[in-house]
Design goal:
About 5% of the residues lie in helices and about 35% in strands. It is mostly beta strands. It has two domains: about 50 residues, no CATH class; about 90 residues, Ribosomal Protein L25, Chain P (Beta Barrel), CATH 2.40.240.10. The model has no long low-confidence stretch (mean pLDDT about 80).
Length: about 140
């Protein structure tokens, strides 16, 4: 597998079978890469971001909202129901740097390779922080 400037040589997963039984994915415990400088990182679809585990990582949930309609302009004879977007929300559970724990509601932060997000619910009592993506207009 070629990920831009690196070629994946080996991926190790947790031996815990519970995620597979519950329909989840096994936890990746290590990845071995080989540097590939001829690759074009702009054309790669998979990018890796890592965080040190020498900190208290903060669980976060990122929400991205899509358009309600799949057509820019409905005509008089269009059937409204056929142009309703069936999937208008994407939820991504992940972990963030320990500094995210200090964010308050309505703070805005940029997550690498994801975009700008507004904090909807701050990290508190072990509950994940919740962030809503701020639209940039690039997909219009």
């Amino acid at each position: 597998m070629n990920w831009g400037n690196a070629i994946v040589r080996k991926i190790d997963h947790s031996l815990n079978p519970l995620p597979l039984i519950t329909g989840g994915k096994p936890k990746v415990t290590s990845i071995e890469f080989e540097l590939h400088l001829q690759g074009d990182f702009k054309k790669t679809s998979k990018k890796v971001t890592w965080l040190s585990t020498d900190q208290d990582l903060v669980p976060v949930t990122l929400y991205d909202f899509d358009y309600l309609l799949t057509k820019d302009k409905l005509e008089d004879d269009d059937d409204f129901d056929t142009f309703l977007n069936k999937n208008t929300i994407t939820e991504t559970n992940c972990v963030a740097d320990c500094n995210v724990a200090a964010l308050k509601e309505d703070d805005i932060i940029q997550f690498d390779r994801k975009g700008f997000f507004r904090c909807d619910r701050a990290f508190k009592n072990g509950q994940p922080a919740t962030f809503f993506q701020i639209p940039t207009g690039k997909n219009m």
